[in-house]
From TrEMBL:
Its main location: membrane. Residues 610-668 form the PASTA domain. Keywords: Carboxypeptidase, Hydrolase, Membrane, Protease, Transmembrane, Transmembrane helix. It comes from Maribacter aquimaris. This is Transpeptidase family protein. PANTHER family: PEPTIDOGLYCAN D,D-TRANSPEPTIDASE, PEPTIDOGLYCAN D,D-TRANSPEPTIDASE FTSI. Pfam families: PASTA, PBP_dimer, Transpeptidase. The keyword tRNA-binding does not apply. Gene3D superfamilies: 3.30.450.330, DD-peptidase/beta-lactamase superfamily (3.40.710.10), Penicillin-binding protein 2a (Domain 2) (3.90.1310.10). It comes from the Bacteria. InterPro entries: Beta-lactam/transpept (IPR050515), Beta-lactam/transpept-like (IPR012338), PASTA_dom (IPR005543), PBP_dimer (IPR005311), PBP_dimer_sf (IPR036138), PCN-bd_Tpept (IPR001460).
Amino acid sequence: MAVTEKSILNRLYIVAGFLFLFACAVLFKLVSIQLVHGDKYRDLAHKRTERMFTIAPNRGNLYSDDGSLLATSVSKYTIRFDAVTVSDADFKANVKPLSEALAKLTGKSSSHYQQLLRKAKANKNRYTLLVRNLDYSEYMDVKDFPLLRKGPYKGGLIVEQKTVREHPLGKIAERSVGYERKDENGYYTRVGLEGAFGQYLRGVEGKRLKQKIAKGQWKPIGMDNIVEPKDGYDVISTIDINIQDIAHHALLRQLEHYKADHGTVIVMETETGEVKAISNLGRTQEGRYYERLNYAIGESHEPGSTFKLMNLVAALDDKVIDTSSVVDTEKGYWKIYNHRVKDSKHGGYGKISIAKAFEVSSNTAFAKTIHNGYKENPSRYVNHLLNMGIGTELGLPIKGEGKPVLRSPGDKGWSGLSLAQMAYGYEISMTPLQVLTFYNAIANDGEMVKPRLIKEVKEWDRTVVKFEKEVINPSICSKETVAKVQQLLKDVVEKKHGTGHRLYSPNFSMAGKTGTAQKDYVSKDPDKLKYISTFAGYFPAEEPKYSCIVVIHEPDKSVGYYGADVSGPVFKSVAQKVYATNPLIDEVEMMKGEDEQLEQSYQKYYAEAQKKYKKVPNVKGMSGMDAISILENLGITVEVKGNGKVKKQSISQGTDISKVEKIILELS
């Protein structure tokens, strides 16, 4: 018995000892946590219950020059459903009306949503997707749907909000408008105007401290943000949406007709350098076209015969030739070393002036002229081009400008053929916008201005930054040379032998130069030979308001590939429609007595308009506008044919107005 009691006591002592040691260990740990690692664990607890949230600012809007939206930020909402928080009674009473409301919103069936909701309830799903990408008004409607109107805790409503960037013009000018994206590491990808001027558009993020509450919800601590967000500024671009729309659709039609790989159109205001339209379209494997890359700014390639203008300006200024200088085009080809320079016309043009050589775009004439004129001092030729701004980047704010190539004697790739090749646009590389900048300088009487895509940065009605005209070169050549080449560019279109004569219209004037450059010409396989078709110029020819370049790559050769055929019609379409939407207005001085006649005409109209008619009046002899105003005020629908004064009305005078719904007026 004593042995047994002693054994039990020993065991109790052992257990008590273990308990004492455990208590000591717990006490030591508590002291260690509190005193040694206290700061660490307090920070950890703080992070789990409190968190600093970033408040995204509203990104500024991007506008066209007339205030139309090119890009804007809008809130989009995703609605999810927490099936656990909803009571069985509420769910049963509301599942059908909720499903019907969702079906009406989305176009899906009510049974689809009933099945979705019942499955979520059975599986206790706390994050079921109901609908996504709602705008604000749709979101407000959904918040008031049966069951969801009870809120997050009784109705299971979960709302996720995000801000997305929308382009009201859709795919038109998409690459030029561009985007700015920030990855998880904080690095930006910048494209187009959005990327170039992101520093103004993006604003400054705010900070807000929030505390974690039940069910994964966070609530703000205090009434104020730690750092208030600052919204981005608005940016006003130079883009004219009407000209942009014209350029886009004219290019699209031509690309589709010629089954081309890609193309670009740029329209620039001559005096200021403001880019009014910039369209870039590339072909998909399915044969459709979309804004794939910014070819206008980023694609540098051999310009072909459009570069003859640069050569002509240099040669005229250097007195190497004059427009009346005669060049022998021989039989349509000229051999230099082991290379043949050929003209597009079989048999050549014979002996012609350099002026006509430019108008017919003779390769042999220009190759002989530039080679013979500068072969003793080729650096003089290259330096002249450099001094005019050729071979230099424009320094645009938009990322990705293509680098021009202009070799000098001694550079890799320079050879005895270089002068002859460069004479008609090979062994040199430029982007479409770089080429257009030179043509615009000729239109601008020699002043080369930097292309400009932005007018100003604004905060509400306050201008933050204003972008002014920037002159690259006040005079690229002599006034005499400018006048001569302006006339030749006009003759390319107006003279019957000019390569651009098919574009001529007696209704409006244009000046420009065609260009047809070969691609992949190093290949000996003719089937692999591809072309770049270009037309660059300006309009009107006499007092240029806009310059324009059209470049189309790889048109189907079976349909056509010459610049006048492929790119020229796009240029003409743009010029014609811009003329139509922006007519030149001349103030006409009235002859003696005309103002009195106008006043009498108005008084006659006013007297007629004041009458209370019950029958159709006689409006013959009235101006169309006056007749329409009187008849429409009587509640009659008016259809008009022609212009001028009313010569015939379909409903005769004296007809009861109550029996008339529509009247047709024929104008003289």
